[in-house]
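Table S7 (text form). Paired inputs.
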Amino acid sequence: MKQSQQSNKLRFDGQVFLLGLMSIKKVGQSQLG
């Protein structure tokens, strides 16, 4: 149970990290014009 919760948190952190990267890319592209 505890291990599955930990893996779920890692997966959630990974999704947040990917979303952050995508948003940074979008901001960079919009700044480049």
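Next pair, protein 2 of 2.
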Amino acid sequence: MAESGTQLNRKELEKIYDANYSNYERILADIVVDVQKKIRECGFNPSIKTRVKSFKSYFAKKLKLYRQAHANPQAMLPITDFLGIRIITPFMGDIAKILTCIKENFIVEEIEDKGASHSFREFGYESIHVLIRIPDQFLPFAEGLETPVCEIQLRTILQDAWAEVEHELIYKSEFSPTDEPLKRKLASLNAMLSLSDMLFQELRDYQHALAIELSKRRDSFITSIETIIDKEFTGKYIKPEVEENPDEDFVYSESLDEMLLHALNAHNAKKYDVAIRMYTHIIEATSRKDIQALIYKHRGMAYFS
């Protein structure tokens, strides 16, 4: 989009914007279909939002950049977030994986970590902005764009929630808090959201680790049965594979979840005495009948292994 002389020509810019708006929507719609397909092929199904920058927002940013470059208007930075895609995932750990997926499937012009140097006005942790080059097949419809790129933002659900609230609270109202108590409240809110994201990720990692150990326990049980059958019908004993032994130290102050994970790990590593002690302690440490019933089953299998 062009400007006249050393002054921005709002009418000319708006005319170009209106003439090409339908093409901008078409490009963005085609790109998001491609992005969504590639991300799903990588094993993810995040929420995705899109937007073409409104002319009001575009011109306001153009004016801001123009004023910043008043000494040399010809060197004014281009607007690169005209076409925007926001990818929203529940967990922090997915962000890096989705970023890798994007880098493997698109031409990436720039990656910016918005959390690297944040202030109280910004989310207190990782928020990734990626500029991908518009694929060649869409370039005929990109006339009027200052640079043929599309911005992809990668955020967690909580980061996106903060961005929406921040936009309403600060940017839309042109509000700039100056008093320290209010700054501290905003900083505290950022910290709580950041901590929540980290805790959600830790819970997910724990569930994943527990699922792996339970799967190993099931596989080990099936292998034991097959070994007995082989011995019964062939007279040969096939020794099952044994994984590296886990740490035998058992910290009784751990949570029940952590103790169960350690018990399963010991059980899978054929350390039956250690596993039985752990299972017994879990049974004694909880009054919940459903948990006790589950642990009794595992302890029984350890007894007869």
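Residues 65 and 104 are 32 Å apart (CA to CA).
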